[in-house]
Amino acid sequence: ERAFIKDWIMLLESMLQMEAWLKLPEILVFKVQCFEIKVRELMALENVIGKQSTGTGFRTFNFHAAVHLSDDSLYFGVPNHVNSSSNEMHHKPDKTAAL
After folding, report:
1. Could you give phi then psi for residue 65, rounded to 5 degrees?
2. 14-24 exposure pattern, b = at least 16 Cβ within 10 A, e = fewer
């Protein structure tokens, strides 16, 4: 049980580090390119430690979208400078209708 708790602490710390890194005002291109590998490693870690036996597991858009963070950063700049909130409002009626 102790190893289980340590695994979850490691996962949480890794995710917090990634969030802090993504909030930097600027990131070197080389580091963004390295991030593509690191995000896949973090996703694999999350799959092992946070394994879900019910529901969709980690086959969700938000989980998959992390794979594209490095490319998006290279094309559009660091995530701290990108705001998609105005576009999020456009599909609210569709989400309501889908429910």
Report:
1. -60, -25
2. beeebeeeeee
Is-contact 78 35, C-beta < 8 A? Answer: no
Q: Is the pLDDT of residue 73 over 80?
A: yes
Residue pair 39/18 in contact by the 8 Å Cβ criterion: yes
Q: What DSSP letter does each residue of 23-56 carry, written as one string?
A: T-S---HHHHHHHHHHHHHHHHHHHHHT--SSTT
As a whole-number percent, the residues of the chain with pLDDT over 90 amount to 6
Give the integer Cα–Cα distance in Å for 98 and 32: 36
Q: Which of 34, 33, 42 is nearest to 75 (CA)?
A: 33
Tell me the torsion sign for CA atoms 74, 13, 3, 60.
negative
Q: What is the pLDDT confidence band of residue 27, given thresholds at 50, 70 and 90?
A: confident
Mean pLDDT of 73-91: 70
pTM above 0.85, yes or no: no
